[in-house]
């Protein structure tokens, strides 16, 4: 299936998670977690593969074609390092309002940023409202 071609390619790129020489080696990931260290090398490997392109719609120069494709890519990364997957998940969550309701300039600027390897974020909670998005006061 087309939706899984990119996930297969990413999985091959990341290599064998049991290989001690792999950046995404399970033992190395556990050691980073236990040391409370951000997986910088692993993020670089995923970024260099081009995962950011899959967060940007094709109309803006990316390769995002379906949520099924994105879920498959996320599963590949998540099974190796959840921190890396969350970083890119937060980027997608932060970008969705721009893809849906942003101006053409905002979409273009964000697309260039994400395809260039930048992360994004979204603020989902407020002290007075928790995670009730309909009560948020920030605009």
Structure description:
The protein has 139 residues and is mostly helical. The chain contains 6 helices and no strands. The protein has helices spanning 5-14, 26-34, 40-49, 67-78, 82-101, 104-115. Helix 1 packs parallel to helix 4 (67-78), helix 4 runs antiparallel to helix 5 and helix 5 (82-101) runs antiparallel to helix 6. The longest helix has 20 residues, at 82-101.
Question: Any chance you could write out the topology, listing elements then pairs?
Answer:
Blueprint: H1 5-14, H2 26-34, H3 40-49, H4 67-78, H5 82-101, H6 104-115
Features:
single chain, 139 residues, mainly alpha, 6 helices, globular
What fraction of the residues are assigned to beta strands by DSSP? under 5%
How many individual helices?
Answer: 6
Low confidence ranges: none
Distance between the termini: 40 Å
Helix content: 40-55%
Structural class: mainly alpha
Strands, total number: 0
Large-scale geometry? globular
Radius of gyration: 16 Å
Average of per-residue pLDDT values: 91
Order of helices and strands: HHHHHH
Largest sheet, in brief, is: none
């Amino acid at each position: 299936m087309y939706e899984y071609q990119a996930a297969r390619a990413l999985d091959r790129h990341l290599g064998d998670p049991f290989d001690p020489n792999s950046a995404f080696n399970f033992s190395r990931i556990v050691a980073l977690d236990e040391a409370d260290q951000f997986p910088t090398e692993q993020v670089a490997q995923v970024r260099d593969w081009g995962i950011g392109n899959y967060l940007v719609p094709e109309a803006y120069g990316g390769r995002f074609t379906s949520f099924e494709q994105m879920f498959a890519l996320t599963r590949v990364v998540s099974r190796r390092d959840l921190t890396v997957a969350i970083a890119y998940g937060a980027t997608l969550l932060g970008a969705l309002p721009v893809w849906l309701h942003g101006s053409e300039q905002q979409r273009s600027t964000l697309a260039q940023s994400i395809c260039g390897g930048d992360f994004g974020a979204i603020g989902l909670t407020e002290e007075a409202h928790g995670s009730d998005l309909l009560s948020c006061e920030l605009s």
